[in-house]
Design brief:
Layout: E1 9-12, H1 14-18, H2 27-38, E2 42-46, H3 51-57, E3 66-69, E4 74-77, E5 83-86, H4 91-103, E6 108-111, E7 120-123, H5 130-138, E8 143-145, E9 158-163, H6 166-173, E10 180-185, E11 193-198, H7 204-215, E12 222-226, H8 232-237, E13 240-244, H9 249-252, E14 256-258, H10 265-272
C-alpha cells in the first residue's frame, strides 16, 4: 500500500549512480531499497541498458519493482517480466536514418525492437571508434553486419553511434529529423559520447510519467537521482531531483548534489528527500 504523506516513488539511474565504480551496489544502498519496499514506496531503476545488459549486473531477486530500460524505450514490471510499454522507430525511419549515417561515413548500430534490443545490425567504415569495438565484443554472437545499399531492417528500438567530439554529436543530431536524440557518456570508457536515436516519445521522464499514471502515483511525490545527460528528462520530471557528485560539472550546477556513487549517493539522496529508514 502506498503511503500518501510521503514520497510515493523513488527512481534511480544505474551506471554511475546506484552502481559504484566496481559495478556493484553497496550494502547500504541495497538495504535502503529494501526499506523503501517495506514502506510501500515504488522502486524504479531507469537505465540506458537493455533488459539483457541489465540482467548481466542485476539479479532477478533484486529489490526493485519496475525497470525503465534503454533510456525509456521500454518499461518492464521487474517482478513479472511483463513489458508495459515500448517504442520503436518505424521501418521507414530506420531506412532513412541508415542512409543518412552511411552518407556521413559514420559507423552505427541498429538495435532490434525491445525487449530483444541486445541484438543488432551494424555498419562500420573500417575505422570504428575503440568504444564501438569494445561494445561489439560485449555482444558477440548477437550482431549482423550490414552490407549497403541498406536492406529493409524493419522496426528498431534505436540507433547507437559512438563519438569522441561534442561538435560531431551536435552536427549529426541536426541531421536526425522527427526523432529523439539522447546524449549519454559511455559506461565502458567513461568519456566517449554515445549518440542514441529513438522514437520521438522516448525518455526516462516520459516512461516514469506513464508509470505514475498507471499506478496512480502523484508526480509531486516522486524522487529521482542520476548522473548523466540521459537523466535530464527524468530529473526534470521528478518533484525532488538529485545528481551524484561524480556527474559532469554542467549537471551538478543544475540539480541538488549528493554524495558520489562510490559513497552511497543513492541513500544520501533518499535521506535528503526526507525519507526515513
Amino acid at each position: 500500500m502506498i503511503i500518501l504523506d510521503m514520497i510515493q516513488m523513488v527512481i534511480t539511474d544505474l551506471d554511475g549512480t546506484l552502481l559504484n565504480s566496481e559495478q556493484i551496489v553497496s550494502k547500504k544502498d541495497y538495504d535502503c531499497l529494501l526499506s523503501l519496499g517495506e514502506q510501500g514506496i515504488v522502486r524504479v531503476i531507469a537505465t540506458g541498458r537493455s533488459p539483457y545488459s541489465f540482467s548481466e549486473v542485476i539479479p532477478k531477486d533484486f529489490p526493485i519493482d519496475y525497470l525503465v530500460f534503454s533510456s525509456g524505450a521500454g518499461l518492464m514490471n521487474w517482478t513479472t517480466g511483463e513489458v508495459l510499454s515500448s517504442f520503436s522507430l518505424t521501418a521507414d525511419q530506420v531506412h532513412e536514418l541508415a542512409l543518412v549515417f552511411r552518407d556521413q561515413n559514420v559507423p552505427f548500430k541498429v538495435l532490434d525492437p525491445a525487449p530483444e534490443n541486445h541484438k543488432f545490425f551494424y555498419f562500420t567504415n573500417g575505422n570504428a571508434h575503440p568504444d564501438f569495438k569494445k561494445r561489439m565484443e560485449s555482444y558477440r554472437g548477437y550482431e549482423k553486419e550490414i552490407m549497403f545499399n541498406p536492406p529493409n531492417y524493419g522496426e528498431a528500438s534505436q540507433f547507437l553511434i559512438i563519438l569522441s567530439e561534442l561538435g560531431e554529436f551536435i552536427r549529426l543530431s541536426a541531421l536526425c529529423k522527427g526523432v529523439k536524440v539522447i546524449r549519454a557518456t559511455s559506461p565502458l570508457d567513461h568519456k566517449s559520447i554515445w549518440m542514441e536515436v529513438f522514437h520521438p516519445d522516448v525518455s526516462k521522464g516520459n516512461a516514469c510519467s506513464f508509470l505514475c499514471k498507471h499506478l496512480g502515483v502523484d508526480q509531486n511525490k516522486t524522487m529521482g537521482v542520476g548522473n548523466d545527460y540521459n537523466d535530464i528528462d527524468l530529473l526534470d520530471f521528478t518533484s525532488q531531483s538529485f545528481i551524484v557528485k561524480n556527474a559532469p560539472d554542467e549537471l551538478t550546477q543544475s540539480y541538488q548534489v549528493v554524495a558520489s556513487n562510490n559513497n552511497c549517493g543513492f541513500t544520501n539522496a533518499v535521506q535528503a528527500a526526507g525519507i526515513k529508514f
